[in-house]
Design goal:
mainly alpha; about 5% strand; elongated
Length: about 130
């Protein structure tokens, strides 16, 4: 009769993996995944003001206004633009890469894009709404 060990064997590639990488998934990460996470965070930040203003029924700036980025677009246009930004963020974060926000490097790249876009939006919209004091 055969006996089975309850010990879990080590992964065959574990010996060849650099110590700095914590998992096989991390070993498959390429530089462009981090670029995708950065821009995914930026698109996620751009989703927020357009969607919130749109569902609130307020006209707001959009690239489709006249002049672009300064004139006002309807609430419906802003909801659509916000949802488009959310979709692009989804593609960049979950389709180009396999984001895991528990990993510090994934979170940092996404947060950097989110913060950068948030500050740019605050500056651009502050100019138009009197928020740049």
């Amino acid at each position: 009769m055969a006996t089975y060990s309850s010990a879990i064997p080590e992964h065959p590639l574990a010996a060849t993996r650099p110590a700095a990488l914590s998992s096989p998934a991390e070993a498959g990460m390429r530089w462009y995944h981090y670029v995708a996470y950065f821009f995914g965070g930026a698109f996620l930040a751009n989703f927020v003001p357009h969607f919130v203003q749109g569902v609130s029924g307020a006209p707001f700036q959009s690239p489709f206004a006249d002049p672009p980025g300064e004139g006002l677009s309807s609430a419906t246009v802003n909801v659509a633009w916000g949802l488009f930004n959310l979709f692009v963020a989804y593609l960049l974060l979950l389709r180009v890469g396999q984001i895991d926000l528990r990993r510090g490097s994934h979170f940092a790249a996404t947060a950097a894009g989110f913060v950068a876009m948030s500050l740019m939006l605050a500056n651009a919209f502050g100019r138009l709404h009197g928020g740049n004091l």
